[in-house]
Amino acid sequence: MEVVKKNFKETLPQVSASIEKADFLVIDAEFTGIINGRDVLVFDTPAEYYLRLLNGSTQFLLIQFGLCAFYYDEEKKMYMNDTYNFYLFPRGQPGPEKIFMCQSSSLDFLVAQGFDFNKLIRDGISYMTEPIETKLRDNIKERQKTYSKEKDPVNIPDEHKDFIEETCKNVRSFLDDNKSDEMEIDRCNSFVRLLIYQELKLRFKDEIIVETKILENKSRLLKVLRVKLDSDTKSHTTKRIEREWDEFEEAVGFSKVARMISQSEKLVVGHNMLLDVIHTLNHFFQPLTDDYKAFKEFTHCMFPRILDTKYMSSLPPFKEKVNSSVLPHLLQTLSEPPFALPNVGSYEGRGYSLTEAKLHEAGYDAYITGLCFLAMHSHLTRMRGEDTSRPDPNSAVLKPFLNKIFLAKTAHQDSPYMNFDGDDPSPSRDHVFHLTFPKEWMRNDINLLFSPYGPVMTQFVDDTHAWVALTRRDQARHVLRGLAASARVTVRPYHVQKGLKTSRSDDLEQLKRACNMTNVPRSRSQTVATNLPSPRVWSPPRTEKVSRVRANSISSPLQSPTKVTRKRTSSGVFQVDDSESPPPKKSELDQASEEALKKEKFVANGRRKASVTSGDETKEQKIIERFDSDSKINCVSAFKESDSWD
Amino acid sequence: MEVVKKNFKETLPQVSASIEKADFLVIDAEFTGIINGRDVLVFDTPAEYYLRLLNGSTQFLLIQFGLCAFYYDEEKKMYMNDTYNFYLFPRGQPGPEKIFMCQSSSLDFLVAQGFDFNKLIRDGISYMTEPIETKLRDNIKERQKTYSKEKDPVNIPDEHKDFIEETCKNVRSFLDDNKSDEMEIDRCNSFVRLLIYQELKLRFKDEIIVETKILENKSRLLKVLRVKLDSDTKSHTTKRIEREWDEFEEAVGFSKVARMISQSEKLVVGHNMLLDVIHTLNHFFQPLTDDYKAFKEFTHCMFPRILDTKYMSSLPPFKEKVNSSVLPHLLQTLSEPPFALPNVGSYEGRGYSLTEAKLHEAGYDAYITGLCFLAMHSHLTRMRGEDTSRPDPNSAVLKPFLNKIFLAKTAHQDSPYMNFDGDDPSPSRDHVFHLTFPKEWMRNDINLLFSPYGPVMTQFVDDTHAWVALTRRDQARHVLRGLAASARVTVRPYHVQKGLKTSRSDDLEQLKRACNMTNVPRSRSQTVATNLPSPRVWSPPRTEKVSRVRANSISSPLQSPTKVTRKRTSSGVFQVDDSESPPPKKSELDQASEEALKKEKFVANGRRKASVTSGDETKEQKIIERFDSDSKINCVSAFKESDSWD
């Protein structure tokens, strides 16, 4: 069911009922862009991953929210789905308008899927964070107290005096003629409208009511209404107050649904859902900050039970059989033996069925995510010889997957998830080194440098820095000694470079240093908020080490000048790379290492870096990368779903 | 005539012909937003004005470009118009995609005027700057050299071996069966597609051609084509090369039109055209830098004859008769005595007529701007007793208006234009002072402080700083002495605060200091360029004092945390304020001064600043300002065209 501004109020009770009766909820969102600036690196920790998304993704707008409620029909003995597609657009009155970013390729992609941007902008539902809502509420109350008070008059400049006089004369005639009950005054700019308003109130006092009429094309004119009863004026003020509160409620809009979902405490399922979660919290609850620990706690508090089907499909027994966990591919795989999709029904106009494939409509993607979840759950319970029908988030069978969100970019480096109910994995990085090398060096030079220790996998950070991972981890202890003498390079162990005391430290100050963070307040989408508690009685923990920084300007020191072409994947997040290419086996790395990792600044196909001579060419090569998706180097581990390499 | 991607190539010759035969051209553009961050202050110099727009406006996208060519029909003895509405959207392949900003109120406004965003995104014409075009061209040439070379193979991981084998078997059957000439392979992610491509080429060599097919919904699959003749393979490469150059030309797109306009050297007319000019240069020519002098020179070089009808209408003999110079109001005024609109014709489907009012369609706005220009020109020549028909940019009658662009925000402080062919006005500011005052002070306190010197006009910069202008300029010399003793405030003369040696200095270093600029490279819309000369043989002047900084990140140090709700005006730029409210006369300032200038952080209607006690409330009040457009303080000099104050 499509939900827009016009039908939002009347649909709200149905949404509430759907959430109420659901066994579990599935969410999916569409955005105006994926990532701006530098993407996640394969050796980023979960905390760094979070920060990079916070800095690079949250300036984009969430424009469609899909909510699919799966509820069990006891009679039919099957699941039914109520699915809602909400079009979301932040308006300027009375809520805060938004300045947000768009990525042209994302918009292009969405339009190709049939997304209607005109409907979005015209009919999108408003929303706001809780801090903004509170402020707005207070502000309206304050303002409404002053409605009866007199305002100081503004003097009428000479050049407008004639027009004002003429207008007053016209109003006098209008009142005396007694033919109609309203007249309009147009062709004035806003200043002149103020003067007229002021003058008419002065001269005609309670004989008239003057108000602004906003036409469909947004232009304005003044409407003068005859006051027939004394109660007209009074009720005018009352009506005005009522109208303002109605507009307020409308402006809060979709945030109510987000909070309903949260307060239900039901299992919330998604596919590759990290961005969905970040955007949901940031748009409808409270702006997120650099504090990773606080982010995890806040997420867990708002959504105490979450499950990521992309993570679920990456583990046995699904991993071996799932060739590609991109959502439509996953659905296809799970519809064939040894799996089976459940039969899920819906009432007319209330939910989806598989016959109406509408990929990348958020509601539909949520629906098929739910199908995949049920299929995988059934498979597991069947293997255990249990009843397969209804997933229970408290069950043992779901326990391994609960509250873990997939980290696509780092999954193949043993960092496959963020754990919202415990510690993140912190795999050994003893075989990983940070390398500083001369500008003219290429991948081959690095391979050569490390050749005594076996094959390596290199991820370039920039012109002169890279992460290098040994395939033969046993060789790690020889590296520092062996390369210490080199005059041309500097090699540092992973934990030293990251500023970690040990490889398992979760000292947030160190994490921030590692990300080169400064305590500069930064804003996502330019809305300002204070740290007010949410309705779920959660207060962000205050620690001395970490100061909560407030969002306030779009850029961030983290963003490097690298601009890379991004494309959407059908899972709805960003480029599918590591998660699509399996981890190379040790024996294959001899050849794979040259191509294995995307050099962050990319080199044009066949164009040797040696031909690049000046410092400016970093940027030039970045321009080139934008155009050149043929570069073979991209292919293996940084594979993009819809990239053309031929 | 509407021009989109599909008909752009075929329309280009017509556009060229229109430009060729035109007496003058009129331009107008629509954007995704107006200004982000702090707006221009009333005492900003033209250089500061430029910098503020550069920092606050150029991250938005120009999405529709209207070009109206007025050409004289000798037989009919009247003007005809050829008007083009170009929908513009930067695509990712092969050109650089864009990450750009949007202001929700601007989008809202445009949709209300009937703007079709789906058409924009789906069918918008691409474009790029010259530096990008050059790089792209080089890149394509480089890449095409490698098409015949072999690429190093990627090893096939175990989990894909079965699928690859099966696929190869299918292709073998396809070739042997000889039933059809092409087969498709789908349901692979991009990595698997690479493996298949590689393997097929290895095993089947010249028997087949393998290429990627992109479906309408942007998903990809592989197509295997049977090679029937030896020439098939060769022509495949040739066709590919041809296709890439076609795509390249398509990607350069609208930039060609912009350059045609420039190279014609014809008179280019606009209405309140500063933003149009800045965006045009930035999108289609070369990214602009902080160097104001270079900007003016570059503009003058690219467009040696420009005329701003808003500026023209602000001077005698129009000034007295024009109540509002907002474009549709100006048109209305010029259609009545003593003025008259010219009769301008058009051929079917080629231009506009007044019967089809389509305000805020860029082409239509350009058309009516042209009508206004002709009407004003006729009026002038009639007054001089000359022939009224055809404007000549070299004529004396147009000389006062030529190459001056209106500065709406500072016009009432005697700084009404930027002069692209000479010095900007630099009015006396001896009566203007920079005031530092205690946080709790309100406008009244400032009025009181200055009361010995007569009424003042105050523009707040932030919580503790403001510009204060004396109405009684003769009192200026007493101010410093009189207020020097005050412990609570600091008063500095204008030129001292701005760091100017004299009030007429144009030392750019000082201007930058005045703007608190740092040499941080900054990007608009995230495209990177180098300073390559344009085709009109113009090289940016290099001075030692000013280092040319390259655009590279969206934010800027200039942006303060102030967020103000912006709305569009029908002139298509930003809020109409000073230009709509006439300069207050001396006798009126007693009352007007309290309201005269918008306090930048705004105070809610009726809510006294005294109730604000903590430092955080600056931001709170900014939030409030977003909601509270009723504040009377806004009314006089900061009047917004479509603001509601009742």
Automatic annotation (TrEMBL), chains A, B:
InterPro entries reported for this sequence: CAF1_poly(A)_ribonucleases, Nucleotide-bd_a/b_plait_sf, PolyA-riboNase_RNA-binding, R3H_dom_sf, RBD_domain_sf, RNase_CAF1, RNaseH-like_sf, RNaseH_sf
Domain Poly(A)-specific ribonuclease RNA-binding: 422-495
A Pfam family matched in the record: RNA_bind
Segments forming a coiled coil: none
CDD domains for this protein: RRM_PARN (cd12428)
Entry's Gene Ontology cellular component terms: cytoplasm; nucleus
Skewed-composition ranges (Basic and acidic residues): 583-602
One biological process term in Gene Ontology: nuclear-transcribed mRNA poly(A) tail shortening
GO MF term (any one): metal ion binding
Region annotated Disordered, chain positions: 520-619
Signal sequence interval, chain numbering: none
Biased composition (Polar residues): 520-533, 550-563
Family to which the UniProt record says this protein belongs: Belongs to the CAF1 family.
Official protein name in the record: Poly(A)-specific ribonuclease
